[in-house]
Amino acid sequence: MKLYPLFLDLKNQDVLVVGAGKVGLRKTRSVLESGAHVTVVSPEFLPEFAQLPVQRVRRAFEPQDVLGQRLVFACTDVEAVNDLVAEVAAEQGTFCLHASRPEHGNLRSGAVWRKGDVTVAFSSGTELPMLTLSLKQVFEAAIPNDFSQKVQQWSQERAQAITLPSPARENALMDLKETIQDNLGMVSEPLLNFVVVGVNHKTAPLSIRERIALRPEEFPLMLEHLQKHAREVMILSTCNRTEVYMAGVVGDPLSAFEGAWGQPLRQYLYIRHGLHALKHLTRVASGLDSLVLGETQILGQVKRAWQDGQAAGTTGSILNKATQLALQVGKRVRTETGIADKAVSVSYAAVELAKSIFGDLQGKTALIVGAGETAELTMTHLRSSGIQDVIVVNRTVERARKLAEAFGGQVCAIDMLLEALPKADVVIASSSAPHYVIHSEHVKNALKERSKPMFLIDISVPRILEPEISHIEGAYLYNLDDLTAIVERNLAQRAKRIPHAETLIEEGLTEFKRWFRQHHKRRELKQAQQQARTVAQDEFEGLHPVLLRLDETQKAAVLQALNRATERMGASLIRELLHQEKEKSKISHGQRK
């Protein structure tokens, strides 16, 4: 069915909603956002209606309720009542939406997307709500987060442009059109055929991420399968994300992803197209999309994913350029914004604190009380920062030995803890003892045998280091809350660097757009060259009566001359293209300055 699309201005208009269940509540809230005066008629009301600025009429529907209404919604759970509402509305020439059987009304409402004053509605023309919802989700994924602010800016620019005399007005409007297209991922015609599909810590629980994470030996088979759906493919798989980047896509990328993993995953998947896919890759490489903001490992993981694709022969000009850009921007974000400078894990915060006390950890000794996972991670960071000697104390000797061997350390019996304490520059307490294991007098006695301070980290719950230790001169005691507070402050500091990072990303996208325009034009020119060579060959063969007078060497010389002419024309056009792009770049850089 072909429907005529309309957008109604319902501000201060009367709207009737018949039915006060979940559907009625949803419709009521929707029309209230449009500024309508709403009357709701129903024998019973959901409690949420009490909070809404509507007129509630607690009784069954009566035909006179439709009088004077601009719009009517039939939302009861009784088909006969909904049919009656739609029938009365039709007789009075009022638009009515029949919620359960839309074909019985004279109005449809599809999936709606709103950003500020911009509203987009989707309809399938038939009763297929899952299609309209999917269309909305695809559209939503392609729209920038700051779209509503940009719409206001573009509106102001258009208002200024139309006041200009011609031809300045036409040029300003064309510039505005190009700006809007760039923001919507439209580099030029056609759209950049570049897509990312994936799941991450925001969209899927750990149980799902574990199920689709790839082992190294699985990559070749997956890449081979995905190449049936795209000319270029790259897979990024980490503990917090599995993403497929594709260029030259044929068919539905979501189906390609599900088919590769052989399981239904659509409810967990996100998809980005064009420049939005490129921006996503760049934000990932920069650490802006990580579970821990600014984490550094992801840059190397993106690089390895690209190298794996190159080794398998599944990347090409688009993916190569996109990934190179993402890596370059990722490095700039880290070096120019300092977004990764502050410690944002408890274990690393402990290391930073230890450095602030000792300055240099080279040659220092660490004593681990307990063998917990966090203690092991903290010890890993300490060891990489220069700690050389490790002493492990634990009630279970086997666990102590395992941890000691991992760090090339030694095991100490639990009853020898106090004898070992004076040797420790850094003490890491990670045990589940129900009482304090190390008291203030123990540390005081240990410090008498030392000439240097002692750094103690109590990450046990409950704590096993007596809090009074912090009052001893030369003893620096920190617990889990102290470290957590440091992490939170550092995360807040990292968050302040995001705008600078986003600016660097936008600069990178601008550079890619410039490259893509050249790349796209070069491809067009090369195709034109090939067509010209074909025409030259046809013309050459059309000269058959003349060619009969020439020997083979002369014929070859004529054909070579024709081909050289087409090559020179193509090369000249490419040089002109590059010159134009260079001049555009100079102008745009000059404007920014």
Automatic annotation (TrEMBL):
InterPro entries, per this entry? Answer: 4pyrrol_synth_GluRdtase, 4pyrrol_synth_GluRdtase_N, GluRdtase_CS, GluRdtase_N_sf, NAD(P)-bd_dom_sf, Shikm_DH/Glu-tRNA_Rdtase, Sirohaem_synthase_N
Q: Pathway involvement?
A: Porphyrin-containing compound metabolism; siroheme biosynthesis; sirohydrochlorin from precorrin-2: step 1/1; Porphyrin-containing compound metabolism; protoporphyrin-IX biosynthesis; 5-aminolevulinate from L-glutamyl-tRNA(Glu): step 1/2
Q: What is this protein called?
A: Glutamyl-tRNA reductase
Q: Binding positions for NADP(+)?
A: G370, A371, G372, E373, T374, A375
- E.C. number, please? 1.2.1.70
Which reactions does this protein catalyse?
Answer: precorrin-2 + NAD(+) = sirohydrochlorin + NADH + 2 H(+); (S)-4-amino-5-oxopentanoate + tRNA(Glu) + NADP(+) = L-glutamyl-tRNA(Glu) + NADPH + H(+)
Question: What role is this protein assigned?
Answer: Catalyzes the NADPH-dependent reduction of glutamyl-tRNA(Glu) to glutamate 1-semialdehyde (GSA).
**Keywords, A to Z?**
NAD, NADP, Oxidoreductase, Porphyrin biosynthesis
Entry remark concerning the domains of this protein: Possesses an unusual extended V-shaped dimeric structure with each monomer consisting of three distinct domains arranged along a curved 'spinal' alpha-helix. The N-terminal catalytic domain specifically recognizes the glutamate moiety of the substrate. The second domain is the NADPH-binding domain, and the third C-terminal domain is responsible for dimerization.
Q: Where is the Quinate/shikimate 5-dehydrogenase/glutamyl-tRNA reductase domain?
A: 352-486
Entry keyword annotation includes NADP: yes
Domain Glutamyl-tRNA reductase N-terminal: from-to ranges: 197-337
